[in-house]
Amino acid sequence: MKKLHGGRWSCLLLSMLLLCAAAAAEPLPAHDLVFRTPNEDSEVLCDHDFCFWQMTEGETDEELVWEVLTQPMTVLEGNQRDQIRVRARPEKECTEYVGVVTCASQGVHVLGTEGEWTRIEAYSSAEEGSKVEVWAERFQGYVETRLLKELQVDDTYGLVIDKLQQRLYVYREGHLFATLLCSTGFPREETPFHETPAGEFAIVSWVGDFWSDGGLYCARGLRINKGIMLHEVPCVITTDEKTGAETRDYTRCERYLGEKASHGCIRIQKEKTPEGVNAEWLWRNLSRKPVTKVIIWDEIGRKLGYPEEDYPLYYNPKGGKNYHSSPECLLVREKYRPLQAFTWGELDEEPYSRLTPCPGCAPQIRREGIDTVNEKNTRK
To answer: Domain containing 329: what range?
Structure first.
């Protein structure tokens, strides 16, 4: 396969997308208007046949996504809580560091080996307090070749997290299986280390439940990058003083699903999708050995376009308050299913304008919401 860089590869994929859409005659959901690959602006370009670093961010071709999700990863040897500082030059004496990589779980892009040193590419995983203040930015630098290790991955399931759309896509045996709402890291000027790094990762540990800042309880944590977990949307736990009964309130964080909101972890909906998938399902079904691969698309330089006007949505005309992506949404009682169809182009008209997006089936957001996504995407 001939290697295509940057614009030529993007144009080819765009043509394929348009041809597939025309052939299937199915209206397009929200999709990227700017087609970018992670490696296209790099100092050293990739010469692999095809890999994560050549895949268009926001890719919708299931075959291409699945090819990346099932490719082996190259990681750095070490404990899953250890991190390696990557040097600017292939010298042990070099103390100029260009980024940080987490051992065991974070995939690195191998660009060339020069004896004892290998040039790699990755998104920096530097944490709060790191002396290498490179927060979630793409970099290229050198590590010792002896640290490189190939990691085989599961060929049944794989996950894709899109930081632009704040969606988690579950792929099963080559096809998109379920779409969930998520929240990745929300950095501020004073906390840039809260940005969730993009790249390739492996789920290396079923950590379990833990407490987070602000008295938030996070269930079913799956480690992908030192302190970064996939976990159920946090809740606030209160205990009745008289009965000892425990109550879990998810509203504080659940309302932000579909937006950046965390300290770097990936919060995942607890409500089930029409396929029955949620954070608990991931905990119970993803592979531990071989590991499940997770790819995270960055939002840098991307712009989200509107769905086509006739893209289908659904609602319950008998008092339903939400609109849905599926006529069989499990959050609607069975007697009201299948739901009644309408189109995305009608979403701002009565009676649909009063409806709110379903927290279970991740429907397309409104025109105003897409405008907000693009306005807030200041990572250029």
So the answer is: 308-363
- pLDDT above 80 (res 288): yes
CA–CA gap between residue 327 and residue 329 (Å, rounded): 6
5 or 29, which is more confident: 29
**Strands of 152-252, DSSP E:** 157-162, 167-172, 175-183, 199-202, 205-212, 216-225, 228-232, 236-239, 246-249
Domain contains 93:
no
Does residue 61 belong to any structural domain of this protein? no
| pTM higher than the cut 0.85 | yes
pLDDT tens column, 294-347: 999 999 999 999 999 999 999 999 999 999 999 999 999 999 999 999 999 999
How many domains is the chain built from?
A: 1
Are 239 and 222 in contact by the 8 Å Cβ rule? The answer is no
Confidence band of 24 (pLDDT split at 50, 70, 90): low
Higher pLDDT, 84 or 5: 84
pLDDT for 210-245, tens place per residue?
999 889 999 999 999 999 999 999 999 998 888 888
Question: Phi, psi (5° rounding) for residue 366?
Answer: -70, 165
Query: Helices marked H in the chain — which ranges?
Result: 6-24, 62-69, 251-254, 279-285, 367-376
- Overall average pLDDT of the 255-268 stretch: 97
Q: Which long-range contacts (CB under 8 A, 24 or more apart) does 132-138 make?
A: 132/85, 132/97, 132/98, 132/99, 132/100, 134/98, 134/99, 134/100, 135/187, 135/192, 135/193, 135/195, 136/185, 136/187, 136/195, 136/196, 136/197, 136/198, 136/298, 137/99, 138/38, 138/42, 138/198, 138/298
Structure tokens at 375: 């306005």
Length of the chain: 380
DSSP 48: S
The β-bridge relationship of strands 157-162 and 293-297 is: parallel
| Per-residue CA distances from 301 to 46, 65, 326, 364, 377 (Å) | 20, 20, 31, 21, 8
Nearest Cα to Cα of residue 163 among 137, 213, 191, 197: 197
- Give the integer Cα–Cα distance in Å for 326 and 315: 9
> Is residue 161 domain-resident?
no
Let me know if residue 341 belongs to a domain: yes
